[in-house]
Amino acid sequence: MARDPYSAVWVSHSSIGKFLQCPRAYYLAHIYKNPKTGNRIGLMQPALALGQAVHNVLESLSVIPTEERFSRPLLARFEEEWEKVSGKLGGFSSSEEEGEYKERGEQMISRVSAKPGVLARRAVKIKQEDTFPPHYLFSEKDNIILCGKVDWLEYLPEGDAVHIVDFKTGKHDEDEDSLQLPIYLLLTVNCQKRKVSQASYWYLDRADEPQKVALPNIRDAYERVLAVAKRVKLARELRSFKCPKGEVGCFVCRPFEIIYRGGGELVGTSDSKQDVYVIPLHQDSSKEPGLQRFDTETIL
User: Is the pLDDT of residue 282 over 90?
Assistant: First the structure.
């Protein structure tokens, strides 16, 4: 581990993904802190609310003994999680919109309840500290730490190995060029002792079981992630976080710009000390310098 983790550059799948989309959005979401609260800012929207509720239900099962995991209906657990994102807390613009997303979540949970598959078998849970998520010193030379949570690790007694399972709540397949699986592989290999023998995506919106995907080459995974991580570090050193679309901004950074400039509505603070905002559907951003009017439901 770095001599001082507070001086290291921390990267994760979410932060790297944001940086690749728009460096300005990365700055506003992962570096900037609200001077009034000292917290980072976050944007909540319906798709994120759905994903959060479903993931919380499923991921929480890994610490429960296998024989007790389904003693309480998963839908009851989902109801409790949904309360945390209901209404404005989830960025919903109407009860009808919330109902549509909640129904999708209920269908996902019902699908898993009917055919739990890997969730009914033994799991490995990577330990984490109270302050930091699972992490390791990714590059000592560059003082970069890689961190993140893997959705599920199925324990495979044959070979004393693990199976990476990533839950998908969106409607689209994971891009082949995504760095998510390479990052999950690196974290799993370096944060626990068992070898990784397979990986799968579980598209909960439409599939009854996980779909196996090819494991990346570990060296290639490291080089791909390192290349982007070094770009993140350089941008931080130069304090250069420009949107590729220029001053007008892009669909990724515009919502964060609205919050940065005093817009949006604060709806709560997350467990990770992040101020969570939502942006009303028809909030007028046309008068903001460098911003155009846009519909957040359409472009986010």
Answer: no
Domain count, the chain: 2
Residues 221, 279 within the same domain = no
| CB contact set of 70 (below 8 Å; sequence gap of 6+) | 113, 116, 120
pLDDT at 280: 81
Q: CA-based angle 66:69:74, to the nearest 5?
A: 150
Examine the pLDDT at 193 and tell me if it is beyond 70.
yes
In a domain, 221, yes or no: yes
pLDDT at 286: 38
Q: Assess whether 196 and 87 both reside in one domain.
A: yes
Secondary structure of 138-186 as H, E, C letters: EECCCCEEEECCCCEEEEECCCCEEEEEEEECCCCCCCCCCCHHHHHHH
Answer whether 69's CB lies under 8 Å from 119's CB.
yes
Domain boundary among 214, 238, 262: 238
Domain, as residue range, for 291: 22-43+243-299
Residue 122's identity, in one-letter code, is R
- Final residue in a domain of this structure, among 190, 215, 238: 238
Amino acid found at 176: E
Q: Which of 241, 231, 288, 300 is nearest to 32 (CA)?
A: 241
Q: Tokens standing for 259?
A: 């919050």
Indicate whether 173 and 194 sit together in one domain. yes
Which residues share a beta bridge with 42? 276
Which phi-psi region, left, alpha or beta, contains residue 122 (left: φ > 0; alpha: ψ -120 to 50)? beta
